[in-house]
Design goal:
By secondary structure, this protein is an alpha+beta fold. The protein folds into four domains: 225 residues, 2-Layer Sandwich (Heat Shock Protein 90); 139 residues, 2-Layer Sandwich (Ribosomal Protein S5, domain 2), CATH 3.30.230; 91 residues, Rossmann fold, CATH 3.40.50.11260; 128 residues, Heat shock protein 90, C-terminal domain (Four Helix Bundle (Hemerythrin (Met), subunit A)), CATH 1.20.120. 38% of the residues lie in helices and 20% in strands. Strand 5 and strand 6 form a beta hairpin. Helix 2 packs across helix 6, helix 9 packs antiparallel against helix 10 and helix 10 crosses helix 15. The chain starts with 6 loop residues before the first strand and ends with a helix. The structure holds adenosine-5'-diphosphate (ADP) and magnesium ion. Magnesium ion (MG) binds next to helix 2.
């Protein structure tokens, strides 16, 4: 018969690679294949429920949705079946023969380079179905889609080695049956107690009953026994839910193998009626910076699953939050388009944002160590909030962590509140410095004055910092001040002996410097901020900062070159030395050298480094011959 013909197909090459990697890296946690198959079955049932909502005419009988497990010890088979939406032939090929998701290649490479945590990564990627080959020598899938007749059933069969076959079968019931032919070494998965344990561990909370075909010794018959609790966990009272259950639910919806750091579970009645269960993960996912990635919450309406990854409920800077929202006000037929401009959604977004920020605030008060863990993983993302969320800026600012001179390590642990607490009364501003990296910030000559006077400075070197600081101008009525920029108020804090400066002024040194650097600088001044450095460059308070200019350049724009203010240390021996040089050419050489040195420190690079080295060598050589 034509329709019974077996077709042989090859797995897509990426699928093949993934299969191979998985079979060889997941051996320590084999049991998860049951979780993965049940999770797919549960998804399929959710999809069918949703299908009935939009096509009520297809819902002829009132189905009791369930997932059934049975074993055959003689044949070494484990069978897991569901009465969900099923698949047609094309869907089987698409879903079980290829990996449709983008970024797969990148993921596979990532996986190859990692020795540990492979199972964690695989889980996050959700290549669930293939995990059945970790324990099976052969897998058969029998399925029929809700949209097909019983003659259009499909049988898929593979040993997971590169090829699979596919053929039409007659299958009466809509849904899918997965038959695993277990390896001889995996017989343990035929034991009822073992299956019970695994299902309880991973699938207790899914709201569909998982039943096992169990042999009743007394009555000598088989009967279906429900294993899991089958209640949507978020619909239970908080007091009825154990910590482990919260954690297991998190792992179930995220595929993360780590426990979450913390969570918040709220049921709200009133103008907006909803339940939320939101988690803060303890580790950032491997692809958090992938812009294509959709992050968002799972949406339910009146306990019916609607869709995954709904991004509208939280702002972008809280994209690390995972969890579910179950709304009682939204229509069941809500679509992604409706979500874009729905009033309920924007109302929820406001309250959920506040809720997460206050959850973080609680964490910071009650468990600073955990909060620090959070900051190390997600601080960079949270920083985006300073620019993005004007309304909650003060709250977010309170959550920020920095490093500083007094912190003396690169880990960001200093809060703004602590910074202020440790300042002297007369210090009006919060001082900060931005640089390319921690070391160049820490060793910047801009800090000399502050170190000498025991004034702490926040050291910022994350890429996003310059942008963030543009939006953060004040905290608790104290203004932020970049120490790379000119700052008149600083003069109040400086009381120095000006005798050296007076000598230099007599000689008109500033005038000479200004003449030789006229096209390169905006101005030249004496400064008492420096101790060990002869000269530095600062930006005029109204001009674009060095780091900002770098951001623009990196974005492909060409900002006009910054004209700096050149500040000279009148007490430095080199400055005193050049003041005595009478030969104009040599003096010019020195001035340019000092300027380029300062430019190198300020920007990290020079336009013409060879010329700079040439100048140094020339002056060094002169020195050798003069001694
Ligand atoms: P994921 O669940 O992350 O999509 P899987 O590898 O677990 O990845 O499953 C691949 C796809 O196969 C699913 O997305 C689904 O479309 C399909 N599938 C798997 N199991 C079933 C099932 N029991 N019923 C219907 N479709 C299924
Ligand atoms: Mg899956």
């Amino acid at each position: 018969m034509e329709k019974m013909k077996k077709e042989i197909h090859s797995f897509q090459s990426e699928a093949k690679q993934l299969l191979h990697l998985m079979i060889h890296s997941l051996y320590s946690n084999k049991e998860i294949f049951i979780r993965e198959i049940i999770s797919n079955a549960s998804d399929a049932i959710d999809k069918l429920r949703f299908h009935f909502l939009s096509h009520p005419e297809t819902n002829k009988s009132n189905i009791d949705f369930q997932i059934c497990i049975s074993v055959n010890k003689e044949k070494n088979t484990l069978i897991i079946s569901d009465n969900g939406i099923g698949m047609n032939k094309n869907e089987v090929i698409e879903n079980l023969g290829t990996i449709a998701k983008s970024g797969t290649k990148k993921f596979i490479n990532e996986l190859k380079n990692k020795t540990e945590e492979k199972s964690n990564l695989i889980g996050q990627f959700g290549v669930g179905f293939y995990s059945s080959f970790i324990v099976s020598k052969k897998v058969i899938v029998r399925t029929k889609s809700i949209n097909c007749s019983e003659k259009e059933g499909v049988l898929w069969e593979s040993d997971g080695k590169g090829k699979y076959t596919i053929q039409n079968i007659i299958k009466k019931e809509t849904g899918t049956e997965i038959i695993l032919f277990l390896n001889d070494s995996e017989k343990i998965f035929l034991e009822e107690w073992k299956i019970n344990n695994i299902v309880k561990k991973y699938s207790d909370h899914i709201d569909i009953p998982v039943k096992i075909n169990s042999f009743n010794e007394k009555e000598k018959i088989y009967c279906l026994k429900q294993i899991n609790r089958a209640k949507a966990i978020w619909s239970l009272k908080k007091s009825e839910i154990k910590k482990e259950e919260y954690q297991n639910f998190y792992k179930y919806i995220t595929n993360d193998t780590n426990n979450p750091l913390t969570w918040t579970h709220n049921t709200v009645e009133g103008t907006l009626e909803y339940t939320n269960l939101l988690y803060i993960p303890s580790k950032a996912p491997w692809d958090m910076w992938n812009r294509e990635n959709k992050y968002g919450l799972k949406l339910y309406v009146k306990k019916v699953y609607i869709m995954d990854d709904v991004q509208q409920f939280l702002p972008n800077y809280l994209r690390f939050v995972r969890g579910i929202i179950d709304s009682y006000d939204m229509p069941l037929n809500v679509s992604r388009e409706i979500l874009q401009e729905n009033k309920i959604v924007s109302g929820l977004r406001k309250t959920l944002t506040k809720r997460i920020l206050s959850l973080l605030n609680q964490l910071l008060i009650n468990n600073p160590e955990k909060y620090q863990k959070f900051w190390n993983e997600f601080g960079l993302v949270l920083k985006e909030g300073i620019a993005e969320d004007f309304q909650n800026k003060e709250t977010i600012a309170n959550l920020l962590r920095f490093t500083s001179i007094s912190n003396n390590k690169s880990e960001q642990t200093v809060s703004l509140e602590n910074y202020i607490k440790n300042t002297k009364k007369e210090q009006e501003k919060i001082y900060f410095l931005t640089a390319d990296n921690y070391l160049s910030a820490k060793n910047s000559p801009h800090l000399e004055f502050f170190k000498k006077n025991n004034i702490d400075v926040l050291l910022l070197s994350d890429k996003i910092d310059e942008w963030m600081m543009n939006h953060l101008t004040e905290f608790k009525e104290k203004k932020f001040q970049s120490i790379n920029k000119t700052d008149e108020s600083l003069n109040k804090l400086i009381q120095e002996d000006n005798s050296n400066q007076k000598i230099l002024e007599k000689n008109e040194l500033l005038k000479k410097i200004k003449e030789s650097l006229s096209d390169k600088i905006k101005d030249v001044k004496f400064t008492n901020k420096l101790t060990d450095t002869p000269a530095i460059l600062v930006t005029d308070s109204s001009d674009m900062s060095t780091q900002m200019a770098k951001l623009f350049s990196a974005a492909g724009q060409n900002p006009s070159p910054i004209k700096y203010i050149f500040e000279i240390n009148p007490n430095h021996v080199l400055i005193k030395h050049i003041n005595n040089i009478t030969e104009e050419k040599i003096l010019k050489e020195w001035i340019h050298l000092l300027f380029e040195e300062a430019l190198l420190v300020e920007t990290g690079s020079l336009e013409d480094p060879a010329n700079f080295i040439f100048r140094i060598n020339k002056l060094l050589t002169q020195n050798i011959f003069s001694t």
